[in-house]
Design a protein that fits this description.
heterodimer, A: about 400 residues, alpha+beta, Rossmann fold, OB fold (Dihydrolipoamide Acetyltransferase, E2P), six-stranded mixed β-sheet, five-stranded antiparallel β-sheet, 21 strands, about 30% strand, B: about 300 residues, MetI-like fold, 2 strands, about 70% helix, about 0% strand
Chain lengths: ~400, ~300
């Protein structure tokens, strides 16, 4: 159990490139913190610096108030679960889990008791005498967890622990990791590139991009009040829709019509530039609805042809072709390329998530509504959210 | 292999495989199979080139003669001693060199080349180097000792020098084989071990060593087979003097020096059998040693 503090922690490689730039982060005792971002954003490097597997170039790392920059991994009393699980192939499940305990020179009875406890929690009882090669992916994952929890370490570090599992198993393991962490109350830092994992697991999420922290907040914070275009596009599924627009008096001119500016947006905007400036409008697919199911007077409604309809059972996704190209903005193109999501970032389509009862079909023309207050406005040059301030 | 019926296509493919191998197998049979068979045949005959007319089939008499000979057992003891001591030292030194080569980040190519130089030198040349070095009066190593000593003329020191020459020469080979083993140990396991609290030494003993066991066994096998047939170093350094004959030296002296084809062949068959036994034991051990494969 421990508090972990990163104080302007920086990782600089020999050639001068900075993989991680001045991260300031306080991870509270018992907190479940997620580091999320596209590959190469520095999240794993950050985790490895906490583990001691990578040197810290600048700044200070404190665990429970003690500076640990210079301590080797074995002296930090933390446990780590690797993406590949890193199970010792020549040892049985029991020996794998015993390893940290025998290194710590605990007596045999204590070791046995701890292994039995962990095996019970993780339902590994029947597999204790098997070798990792005889286990399924999910079982191996549990052994890796077991090896981490037997030690009662100060913190768990997890590096994409679920990414080698199939979708169904991943969802199951996600729940059990969450439950395990709550019951053990051990500070946990979890790295993933999967925003769903981040949203469902984390007490707080750190979104990183190119070595720089973009935003730190609760899942709800990130979803409702993204600090910039990148976070807005990264969090949420399907991805947020982005439309170029222009501020004109009390509305925003876009390809889908003149969207009125709500009071909340106006107060946020007041300190940002005059009328006539370019903005990027972000609208979540979930904000849209088939007008037939909306009786809100303030809703903004626009008619449009529907290109494709996908039924998810619980909802319908309608794709609208719109004559826009948000990628004309340089910043946008950069983000899209970095996150490897050129197809979703600023594509010429809008995705609307509609009520499952909606009778809409491909090729129909229909009216779609959303509350003008549900949109976000971003600066097209640097991507900052124009309506949210700390 | 299960006795699953194979399709016609598969069978034709297999037949083709055998045909493609046939030329090589035939050549092997001529250059290796026949000499082996011939020496086995010779070992059952009284055949001394000095008395060519006295040739006769004598069954196991040659074997009885050799196996009851003090010279044979002395050479066998010397050979085994040299084999065990030199391979043991080579294993330790080779492991150290392999780790150095594996961990070197800067100038990796240079380090590896330097390490491999001794192995690249012809054994006889190197052996002469050692012989001159230990020659009293002129050798730089001999001059470090008392003037009155001549280390190559006394049995213990001569054997020690033979072992030294062997170790110097073949440690790089051992290191190379072990290096191949080290490179297949996933880096992540060592990271996991260090997170689990293991020191460098603990993770070496408990993770690396068990995982490279197959590589170690292969290296030991190769080196023991080689070391048991030690010839050139001894030939140059002592030529078997002061009771330092290895079995190969003894065989050579009987076969070529003494022109006794029967006894000489018997000895080479015995060497062959010993080497085969060593190999057999190792392969038995090897078969069950690959981590994770023992189901």
């Amino acid at each position: 159990m421990a508090e972990i503090v990163l104080d302007k922690v920086t990782k600089r490689f020999r050639d001068g490139t900075e993989a991680v730039q001045e991260i300031d982060l306080t991870i509270a005792d018992k907190e479940f913190l997620i580091l999320v971002g596209p590959s190469g954003c520095g999240k794993s490097t950050t985790l490895n610096m906490i583990a001691g597997l990578e040197d810290i170039s600048d700044g200070e790392l404190r665990i429970d108030g003690d500076r640990v920059n210079e301590r080797s991994p074995q002296d930090r009393n933390i446990a780590m679960v690797f993406q590949s699980y890193a199970l010792y192939p020549h040892m049985t499940v029991r020996e794998n889990m015993e390893f940290p305990l025998t290194i710590a020179k605990l007596d045999k009875a204590t070791i046995k008791q701890k292994i039995d406890e962990a095996a019970e929690i993780l339902e590994l009882g029947p597999y204790l005498d098997r070798k990792p090669s005889d286990l399924s992916g999910g079982q191996r994952q549990r052994v890796a967890m077991g090896r981490a929890i037997v030690r009662k370490p100060k913190a768990f570090l997890m590096d994409e622990p679920l990414s080698n599992l199939d979708a169904k198993l991943r969802a199951q393991m996600r729940t059990s990791i969450s439950r395990l962490q709550k019951s053990l109350g051990t500070t946990t830092v979890y790295v993933t590139h999967d925003q769903t994992e981040a949203m469902t697991l984390g007490d707080r999420i750190v979104v990183m991009r190119a070595g720089i922290v973009q935003q730190i907040g609760t899942p709800q914070d990130l979803y409702e009040r993204p600090a910039n275009l990148f976070v807005a596009g990264f969090i949420g599924s399907p991805t947020m829709n982005f439309l170029p627009g222009e501020l004109v008096n009390s509305s925003i001119a876009t390809a889908i019509g003149e969207i009125p500016i709500s009071d909340r947006l106006r107060s946020g905007l007041s300190e940002h530039g005059p009328t006539g400036r370019d903005v990027i409008v972000g609208i979540r697919p979930e904000a849209f609805e088939d007008s037939r199911f909306v009786d809100d007077q303030t809703a903004f409604t626009f008619p449009h042809d529907i290109d494709i309809v996908e039924s998810l059972g619980s909802a319908k996704l309608a794709y609208l072709d719109v004559d826009i190209d948000a990628r004309a903005h340089e910043h946008f193109a950069e983000i899209a390329q970095e996150s490897g999501a050129e197809d979703v970032f600023g594509s010429q389509q809008i995705v609307a998530q509609l009520d499952a009862r909606s009778p809409v079909r491909e090729g129909d023309s229909m009216e779609i509504s959303f509350r003008p207050d549900d949109i976000q406005l971003f600066d097209p040059t640097d991507g900052t959210n124009l309506t949210e301030h700390d | 292999m299960s006795a699953r019926p194979i399709s016609d296509g598969k069978a034709a493919e297999r037949r083709l495989g055998w045909w493609l191998c046939a030329p090589a197998a035939l050549v092997m049979l001529i250059v290796a199979g026949w000499p082996i068979l011939y020496s086995v045949l010779l070992s059952f005959q009284r055949f001394d080139l000095r008395f060519p007319d006295d040739k006769a089939w004598i069954g196991f008499d040659n074997y009885q003669a050799v196996l009851s000979s003090e010279y044979w057992w002395n050479a066998f003891g010397v050979t085994t001693f040299i084999m065990i001591v030199s391979v043991a030292i080579e294993l330790v030194l080779g492991m150290i060199l392999a780790i150095i080569m594996h961990r070197t980040l800067v100038g990796r190519g240079l380090v590896r080349t330097v390490v491999l130089i001794p192995y690249g030198i012809v054994t006889v040349v190197a052996a002469y180097g050692w012989r001159y070095a230990w020659t009293p009066g002129t050798g730089w190593l001999a001059n470090l000792l008392d003037e009155s000593t001549a280390p190559l003329t006394e049995r213990p020191s001569a054997i020690a020098i033979i072992i030294l020459a062997e170790v110097w020469k073949t440690t790089p080979f051992m290191a190379l084989l072990l290096l191949a083993g080290l490179t297949v140990v996933p880096e992540e396991l060592l990271r996991a071990a260090s997170i689990d609290g293991a020191s460098k030494w603990q993770s070496f003993v408990r993770i690396t060593l068990p995982l490279i066991r197959p590589a170690i066994l292969v290296a030991l096998l190769f080196r023991m087979l080689d070391a048991f047939r030690i010839y050139d170093n001894i030939y140059v350094l002592t030529n078997g003097g002061q009771d330092t004959s290895s079995v190969s030296i003894l065989t050579y002296h009987n076969l070529i020096g003494g022109l006794n084809l029967g006894i000489g062949s018997t000895m080479s068959v015995l060497i062959f059998l010993t080497v085969a036994l060593i190999a057999f034991i190792f392969i038995k051990v090897l078969g069950t040693s690959t981590p994770g494969s023992d189901k």
